[in-house]
Amino acid sequence: MKTYNTIKKIAITAAALAATSLMANISIDGSTTVGPIAKAFAEYYKESNPDVNITISESGSGNGVKSLMNGSCQIATLSRFMKVNEFKSCVEKGVLPVAHTVAYDGLAVIVNPQNKVSALSTKQIADIYTGKITNWKEVGGDDAKIVVISRDTNSGTYETFNELVLKKAPVVHGAEYVGSNGQARSRVNSTKYAVAYVGLGFADSTVKALSVDSVLPTPSTVATGKYPIARPLYMFTNGSPKMGGHVFNFVTLCLTPEGREIISDLGFIPVCK
User: 3-state class of 142 per DSSP?
Assistant: First the structure.
């Protein structure tokens, strides 16, 4: 009986391993901004493709590039375009990065709902983040020190903000750095005089999004180019994925009606109507 049970267990294990080996795998790593899109796409895709195992990590845009370069992911999600030196490093490793634009996004500058300030100019935001403005009373708010919250420097969101708003000037010494959009939002929600910037999909009712240069961040103002702090969001693959394959279907899901609906529901802007 023991021999029979042992053989049975071995057979069941072998069958499970065989089934696992037949499953397709898609590994994704990178941006915390693109993370919600990747997760929603994965949930939708697995409904009609239960044999596909999809794993998603959110280690930041820069680390997503490294994962693609060393072969630990098939799709790198980036909230900014790949840098020249990153592309060069990939090619030197035998990896040819191909960009797939999956959505558009605006960077919302957010404050606590109790903050009196509702609008800032791009220059005022830059002056806050570079330390030239340190008190809310200087921009029409209470007499209180501004608590500056920034994304970590490995983040594509940080790099976009640094390029478009700060013009590559360094963030003020003493600023707090957080690892994700969600952490930035939570910090502002719990701190009356904090300011931060997040992807548009993270600017919910727990915080207040400011008007920038007299334009509120909305899907419409981002799509029409009126909102000044906006960017494309990307998925990068090693070469062009095989047409009809799971990776190809996943990165082009944004072009389908279902994919566009998912992107809109998350607060981002589809790449096509």
Answer: coil
**For 204-250, what is each residue's pLDDT tens digit?**
999 999 999 999 999 999 999 999 999 999 999 999 999 999 999 99
Q: Which CATH class is domain 28-104+230-265?
A: alpha beta
Task: Supply angle C-alpha 252, 257, 262, rounded to 5.
Answer: 80
Burial class from Cβ neighbours inside 10 Å (0-12, 13-18, 19+) for residue 273 reads: exposed
Q: What kind and span of H or E run contains 43?
A: helix 35-48
Burial of 161 (0-12, 13-18, 19+ CB in 10 A): buried
Are 30 and 59 spatial neighbours (Cβ–Cβ below 8 Å)?
Answer: yes
Question: How many helices and strands, by DSSP H and E, does the chain display?
Answer: 10, 11
Give the span between the Cα atoms of 60 and 237, in whole angstroms.
16
Strand 194-199 with 97-111, pairing: antiparallel
Q: Write the CA distances from 13 to 6, 20, 24, 177, 256, integer angstroms.
A: 11, 10, 19, 47, 39
Domains of the chain by residue range: 28-104+230-265, 105-223
Letter for the amino acid at 175?
A
Whole-prediction pTM value? 0.80
Beta-bridge partners for 176: 149
CATH number of 105-223: 3.40.190.10
What the block records as the tokens of 12 is 């069941």
Q: Per residue in 73-123, pLDDT tens?
A: 999 999 999 999 999 999 999 999 999 999 999 999 999 999 999 999 999
